[in-house]
Amino acid sequence: MNGIIYCRVSSKEQIEGTSLETQEQACRECARSKNIKILKIFVERGESAKFADRTQLLELIDFCK
User: Fold this and answer.
1) What is the DSSP string of the chain?
2) Which of 6, 26, 41, 62 has its CA 20 to 30 A from that of 19?
3) ∠ CA 8-11-56 to the nearest 5 degrees?
4) Is the alpha carbon torsion for 31, 43, 50, 22 positive or negative?
């Protein structure tokens, strides 16, 4: 089975912390435990979830098409 990872933070404090790395690592471990091959990782840095036009989200949608 194939999969993708989408990690996102919305604030400067989260960007400067380890949140993105922690999210990615947790996703990688989950995928590994379920034998999922990660095809691509999308990382969104500091864009609000209030809007659907986030750069990496749009790239993720295009990738899935």
Assistant:
1) -EEEEEEEE-SHHHHHTTHHHHHHHHHHHHHHHTTPEEEEEEEEES--TT-S--HHHHHHHHHH-
2) 62
3) 30
4) positive
- Among all chains, which residue has been given the structure tokens 């379920």? 34
Tokens representing 30 are 């989950």
Query: Six-digit token pair at 5?
Result: 């990872």
Amino acid at 50: K
Domains of the chain: 2-64 (3.40.50.1390)
Residue whose tokens read 């999210």: 23
Does this model's pTM top 0.70? My answer is yes
